[in-house]
Write a structure and sequence with these properties.
A 6-stranded antiparallel beta sheet has the order 2-1-4-5-6-7, covered by helices on one side. It is α/β, with parallel strands linked by helices and 339 residues long. The chain is 44% helix and 21% strand. It folds into 2 domains: 4-107 and 296-338, Rossmann fold (3-Layer(aba) Sandwich); 117-272, Up-down Bundle (Glutathione S-transferase Yfyf (Class Pi), Chain A, domain 2), CATH 1.20.1050.90.
Length: 339
């Protein structure tokens, strides 16, 4: 069941030297705020996904250090080594070096951060980022389409900032935005349908009641042709404002509780139970779609949950490797590392 066996860090964030054994199914790291707990999870995420969930390499590099090194040993004896020399980063696996983590060496990860608890009432951009990261893990093509869309969108917006721009100037970028935007919409709707098929049942298992919950996609569910028409119809408005007013970059996800918008109608506890449900579904879908059990990284979220929801969290993730950080020791858990 375990994937990660050992973590070794040098000059990584605040850690000059750090080692952690992850031989048990659940690893608990205890420390005060600012002691570097999250940095350990960041290193694991970097090794399994190929990028940080917190910052860029120069921010990761310990102050006044010339390089950082992170080595993650997996249970299959494979080692993933990440080096950054102040200019470039490289990954080394079985003696082979590359600038990016190869797709075949990536593992799914369920990351649970304290801010995720407030996802229901957060900004549309925060929710888009959240689901984009999940959907990238579910399907690599989603990430590719989204990346190409964003590049085309930047080019279109750059042209719109000019004092004089014609429809012809924008046409090729309109076509690309419509092509990749429509693909992203299809995949968002498809993935959200899978989540919603499980959402209410898992929520009821946590809350022990008959409430219903789901997530609604707030956006233009259009095909490529209609997407292109919308861009062309908004030409004058976009020219005046200097940016693209229609598209997937403005879409949102709305949590629905008993047929009403959850933000404003659901209680704080009900919102938190919905987020727990979503996290459990993430693990299930990632395992089904990717064919690998995800590693579950829980970053200091016990302080945000009552004892009942803490128990549900541990019980629902018991079949996955969990690496947990906390400022206090949760009941009946053994500390593996104290910072």
């Amino acid at each position: 069941m375990n994937i990660v066996k050992k973590v070794s860090l040098k000059n990584f964030r605040c850690h000059e030297e750090f080692d952690l054994d992850c031989n048990r199914p659940t690893t608990l790291i205890i420390g005060e705020n600012g002691s570097g707990k999250t940095s350990v999870l960041e290193a694991i995420y970097l090794a399994l996904r190929g990028k940080s969930f917190k910052g860029v390499d120069k921010e990761i590099l310990k102050r006044e250090a010339d390089f950082y090194r992170a080595e993650i040993e997996l249970m299959d004896a494979q080692k993933i080594i990440i080096r950054f020399d102040g200019r470039k980063k490289e990954f080394e696996i079985d003696g082979k070096k590359s600038l990016r983590l190869p797709k075949k060496n990536r593992y799914p990860v369920v990351l649970f951060e304290p801010d995720d608890i407030y996802l229901v009432g957060s900004s549309p951009s925060r929710r888009r980022d959240y689901f984009d990261e999940l959907f990238k893990q579910i399907n690599e093509n989603y990430g590719a389409a989204l990346s190409k869309y964003n590049k085309a969108l930047r080019q279109r917006n750059d042209l719109l900032k000019n004092e004089i721009v014609s429809r012809d100037d924008l046409f090729s970028w309109n076509v690309m935005c419509a092509n990749y935007g429509a693909e992203v919409i299809r995949r968002r709707v498809h993935n959200l349908k899978k989540i919603n098929e499980k959402m209410t049942d898992i929520y009821r298992n946590i809350a022990k009641n008959g409430d219903e919950c789901s997530i609604k996609y707030i956006g233009a569910e259009v095909d490529e042709n209609d997407y292109l028409k919308n861009l062309e119809n908004n030409f004058e408005r976009d020219c005046v404002l200097g940016y693209t007013t229609f598209g997937i970059h403005r879409d949102d996800y709305e949590f629905i509780f008993n047929k009403k918008k959850a933000d404003g109608s659901a209680s704080r506890g009900e919102n938190r139970s919905m987020i727990l449900s979503l996290k459990f579904i993430e693990a299930q879908i990632l395992e089904q779609e990717v064919g690998k059990k995800p590693v579950v990284l829980l970053d200091d979220i016990f302080s945000e949950l009552d004892e009942m929801r803490q128990r549900h969290l541990i019980d629902n993730f018991k079949n996955y490797q969990m690496i947990i950080t906390s400022t206090a020791v949760p009941s009946e858990m053994r500390v593996d590392k104290k910072l």
